[in-house]
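We modelled the chain as a single entity of 118 amino acids. Its sequence is:
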Amino acid sequence: HADHNSKATTIEVAIETVDEAVGPDFPVDLIKLDVESHEHAALLGMHATLERCKPAIIFECLPTTPPGPIEELLFDHGYQLFRLLRSGPRRIDRISDSPAFSAEYNFLALHPSGASVL
């Protein structure tokens, strides 16, 4: 039920990349990324953090999101991919090759020299 008396208000907000927000001395072990199909752009904004800290990354990749750019960016940083299933994480070669299981579109990216969460 929509409230027809409400009015939309536009506000301006500052936008910062993860690299700008955390700075070079802040340790990052885990990133939970939920940006509704903007994963690639968000990952681009954390290039230095990925290189420096190699954090584990939990993210969603919906069927409407092209996985190729996300995969390539993570592979360029040395990450391995896992599909997060109810039965536990399952190693995959590519997001685009993994079968779509019901609503399980959550993934984990781990760097071999980063923190181990498995």
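As a brief sanity check on the tokenised model: The radius of gyration is 17 Å. The beta strands are 30-33, 56-60, 80-85, 88-92, 106-110.
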